[in-house]
Amino acid sequence: MRKHKRKQFFPYSLPYPGNLSFPDKFIWGVSTSDRQITENIDRGLSIWDAFAMISGKIEGGYDPRITCEHMRYYKEDVALMKQLGAGAYRLSIAWPRWQSEGLGQPNQSGIDFYDRLIDQLCRLGIDPWITLFHWDLPLELECLGGWQNRDTAKRFADYVFSVVSKLGDRVKHWMTLNEPNIFAFQGYLSGEFAPGKHGAWLAAFRAVHHLLLAHGMGMQVIRQASSDAKVGIVVKMLPVETLSYSPLAHASAHLWRMLGTSWFLDPLLRGSYPLPVRGIYDAMSAINRLGRHSPVVRAGDMEIICPKKRMDFLGIDYYFRQVINFLGQWRMHVPGSQHTAMGWEICAAALARGLIRLKEEYGELLPIVYITENGMASDDVLVNGQVNDQQRIDYLIDHLIAVLQAIAAGVDVGGYFVWSLIRNWEWPKGLLKDFGIVYVDFKSPERTRTPKSSFYVYQDVIRGNGLIYVPLSMCR
Ligand code: IFM
Questions:
Q1: Which of 175, 275, 330, 401 has the least CB density, counted as fewest CB within 10 Å?
Q2: 179 given a catalytic annotation
């Protein structure tokens, strides 16, 4: 038992995978989100449009309306996916494009764009995987309280019904929410994301419960509307690792793990919040009752969030681990480690360890996992028509090895999606950080696209369903 705990807490090495092939039918894809790559045409405003207007919120002042113009060039982008050999494309529907104000009649011209895009994907044999909420809440709904208002969950379910009724004939994989854990932390505690609240713990607690409720209600609606649909949610995996033992480090790691992961996965997979979190919701409910208000967590909510027929899959986005030092502090920089242009530590092994830990922790409750995002930002330049992004190649290969290690250890991983196909508007970093495996020339009016070296390496991976055809010269 003690040994088991040590294994969970400290970074340990896993054997190099003997087999460099992925399982048959492994899904290879690329990911994007609407707000990050499309123009502001045919859509209402979202909380991010309002947030970006506040001076100093977006580094470099980058306007979210300036993007790679995927709406205009979607055919070219789908052709690139085809060239890559991707079997799936994870995209998001922008709620304010579907319903300009987050409720009522859908916006026909917005819907038409998704119709055209999905038809084009299907024509080229690429399976659309749709995220229904990738952080861009309609501004009107924020004015009504946003995710702090329980009604938003119901409105989300109505919106989901409208989307599934229209696209459900062609779309079979649905993700209700993207990274509610990051949205809640950055949006309500650090204030770095829209809606930009600082240290608003009670608001965060309310928002998290309503987000999870929205997931459950959305899942119900999808299942009722489309019997063969697969539904999941996407959570950012934040493996917490301590580098040395101290009671402080131990306690801090527990706390971070609970706040970053169990607060979300326990209700989704077990149907209950972790004990301390439940205590806070209970205390909030008691105070609400005194003021004759309804409790945040109501009878029947947990059955909606975690119904008997659990979600079909769990999407995992992975970028970095949380390292806790001797004093119990969270450190982004571990001496000697490499970092991406975002300043995030590169640690592929923590992806494998994190997946194994999830399996150990949730056992049979853990459904099939898809890595719905993984990738890195780098400062890429176009030289003689080529972009040599060697660091991203190393990154992708190391993380794919980590996925193989997790599979070898018994984790059911069904697919991998690179973030991102193309340069995206990176939230508070604007256009300063480039995650794409396709370079976009923002100086050219046509937003010329050039596949980077990593694109071709990923193409080899997909072609070989593993790392077998990756030219050694491309790897470290
Ligand atoms: O760009 C984001 C994406 O929208 C959500 N996951 C993390 C990515 C990189 O920060």
A1: 275
A2: yes
Q: What is the pTM of this model?
A: 0.96
Q: Mean pLDDT for each consecutive 10-residue tract of the chain (476 residues)?
A: 46 86 98 96 95 94 88 98 98 98 95 97 98 98 98 98 98 98 98 97 98 98 97 98 91 96 98 98 93 92 98 98 93 88 96 97 98 98 96 96 96 98 96 97 95 97 90 55
Give the ligand 1 atom nearest the CA of 373.
6
- Hey, how many other C-beta atoms are within 10 angstroms of the C-beta on 11? 16
Query: Would you say the CB of residue 317 lies under 6 angstroms from ligand 1?
Result: yes
- Greatest alpha-carbon pair distance for the chain in Å reads 69
Sign of CA dihedral 13, 17, 20, 22: negative
Residue having the nearest C-alpha atom to atom 2 of ligand 1: 426
The amino acid sitting at 94 is A
Question: DSSP per residue over 233-285, as a string?
Answer: EEEEE--EEESS--HHHHHHHHHHHIIIIIHHHIIIIISS--HHHHHHHHHHH
Domains of the chain: 6-464 (3.20.20.80)
Is residue 33 lining ligand 1, measured as CB closer than 6 Å?
yes
What separation in Å is there between the alpha carbon of 378 and the centre of ligand 1? 14
